[in-house]
Amino acid sequence: MAANSRFAVAVHALTLLALEADERHSSRDIASSVATNPVVIRRLLAELSRAGLVESAHGAKGGFRLAKPAASISLLDVRSAVEDCGSMFAQREKRNEKCPVACRMAGILNDVFARVESKVAPELKKTTLADIVRQIG
Predict the structure, then answer these.
(1) What fold does the segment set 6-86+128-136 form as a domain?
(2) Does residue 128 sit in helix, strand or coil?
(3) For 4-45, how does the pLDDT look when each residue is reduced to its tens digit (9 = 90+)?
């Protein structure tokens, strides 16, 4: 099973846009930095655009840029824009009903995941894109 890197790729793309805020960037340029396909970037940027984090323009001077200052974009905003579910953690829905472990695992892990999430979300909320940009240098 592969880990989901959508959040990390979105933060990378937004950091690139924040570092060069006066310029618009094509999905091809961003994809080159992230080392992925431009289609992946366009899909993520569409979600970020719907969330009001980026804006796009078409034409010769088109491309993507931040829709608001990096200091006003939290990592929780980014995660909320690109993650499909409310929780960071996913469980398999299919289970063996005859197995005592499988029957109890979802409830047990949901409790653990809720505790972890309650610690992670505030950290993501207080960390802004501007904080990431400062660390890039």
Answers:
(1) Arc Repressor Mutant, subunit A (1.10.10)
(2) strand
(3) 788 999 999 999 999 988 889 999 999 999 999 999 999 999
